[in-house]
Design goal:
Largest sheet: none
Shape: globular
Distance between the termini: 34 Å
Strand content: under 5%
Oligomer: single chain
Helix content: over 70%
Number of strands: 0
Radius of gyration: 23 Å
Order of helices and strands: HHHHHHHHHHHHHHHHHHHHHHH
Amino acid sequence: MLWFSVISEEASVLSLPKLLRKAVEEDPIRLVEMGIFLLAILHTFLTPSLHRLAEQRLNRARRLEAEQSPQAAKERVAAELLLLLGEVEVVFGLWVIPLFWILVGVKGWAGAIQQLEINRNFAEPLFVVAVMTAASSRPILLFLDQWLQRLAALGRESVAAWWFSLLTLGALAGSLVTEPGAMTVTALLLGKHFFALGPRPALSYATVGLLFTNVSIGGCLTHFAAPPVIMAAHAWGWGSGYMLVHFGAKAAAATALGSLVYRLVFRKEFARLETLRRQGRGEEAAGERVPPWITGAHLAFLVWIVATADTPVLCVGGLLFFLGFLQVTGPFQDEVSLRRAVLVGFFLAGLEILGSLQSWWISPLLERLGDTSLLFSASVITAFNDNALVTYLASLVPSLPESSKQAVMAGAVAAGGLTVIANAPNPAGQALLSRFFPDGISPLGLAAGALVPTAIALMLLRL
């Protein structure tokens, strides 16, 4: 932070290459931090290939086990290691480890902890773990399922009606229940009403890209729900009224228009899925009921977790009481696994550590760009970084014009669906939907699916 305040004073004097060279000369370890960050990004793109390789090794291990070969154990260990490396949620946390020990060797134990700011409170990762766990419970899912069913009924509860309702109103609900909550619930309901029918890959990737993009822009109607808004709203003096006026209607229009475009493009595939639905494929057992007082308690826990998002002790405390309540009301609950939620939290914590070390080159770059350049630069940087970090770094730039602030915000939220690391809730969506993709969700497939809604969002948010 001190370095950035100094460099801001020199920004008008030095060119960008000279400024970056000066930053590296002051602390050469910055190049190591940048290199490891870029390796982590490359790793995220390689995870599908690692996952496929792990499956091949697992099959070989099973054959060796059937033959009682002594090599079976080694083959299974290798396969499990590849599976671990192929989990996108562990990527950034894993790359923090070598960086930490490099810093220990250069700056000592205390210096490494200070450099990485490991003593930070990690409020956002902890909040995402808590809200994912609460939002994925059976009472919350049934409550939102019934609410959205009324909307889908306008389209006779067809596959297309469910799909459109979830990807528009489900995403926009993120402005109230927060983006992580909207991502969790919408992904789970898409799994039930859409992915369970077995859509073809093109529509599957279009849906995931649209989901990630719509959730990213759907949280812009308020100032407390979207991570990129939260990181800059206080510094820029933006409240919910400001967000609603400058971004709200545009964000709602972008979610609807992007969904409508894909609905028309894939109309034949939707017709095929509708035929399957009428034949009964993919339907879940009916008759699930939860007493209203349990649903009310779950909603209260969810409100508490959202309200205490900035206070980790209270947020995690609410999660612990929630887990206790699940135990007490077990007959009306599904089994809750914290594994995915914790993995997503681990991903975000690692991204927060590595991403925050990139301010020495991202901030000066943002400071020198005009509004149009800022819009597209924020979009590009967001694709390879968390959009909350992009807006946070922009909030550090002194005297940034209001139009430039809006351009940064528009670019950051519009591009939030291009990659799994572009927006904090995306790892939650990937974790919940990857089971519908035999080889995992491909980064290139996700980017291709998100391109059209991203372009629409960029166009409408900058009108």
